[in-house]
Amino acid sequence: MTMRLVVVSAGLSVPSSTRLLADRLTESVRRSLAETAGAPEVEVRIVELRELAVPIANNLVTGFPPPVLEEAVTAVTEADGLIAVTPVFSASYSGLFKSFFDLIDVGALTGKPALLGATGGTARHSLVLEHAMRPLFAYLRAEPVPTGVYAASEDWGGSGDPLTDTLPDRIVRAGGQLARAMTAAASPAVFPAGSSGEDGGGTGRQSADLRLT
Hints:
The chain is of the alpha/beta class. 37% of the residues lie in helices and 19% in strands.
């Protein structure tokens, strides 16, 4: 069995901390799926929205997606699991991130397991996962896993601070939850709907691993 994991990164710079977080989350999902009984093959597709900025703008004004954008949207809608990561601009997801998901039909992501992530310069924006991203994906009828991962600038350099040294743990927890959700969606007879993982990793529970400041 091959599972398709699509990663949407809305980072604008090169290198990008948003892409870095997306890559860390992807690796965590890969490892968790590899530990699954019958370890499925994983096909990963990275969608860099930075490279699609002009096609997205053209689609918004013409109503017709260029082939490269249509292919990216199809990859997202047909994926077995989705990782979506955005930088925080003005206390919310970036305009490019929102514009891309505006192009996806409501219902096209119904029931799709999703892992939400965001990056920002300060931990004070960590609630963006709950007040902006989770409602967006609920509207699209996707099923975000309980743990969303927010990474502020200080999260990337371990300093011994118990509040800022938890990023690796949060990445592992979130990756495990998405892997289990993808497996459950692919094998409902093996993983009954509503079952949870060892850390309560079922979908639909509205909670997140956030550091409140």
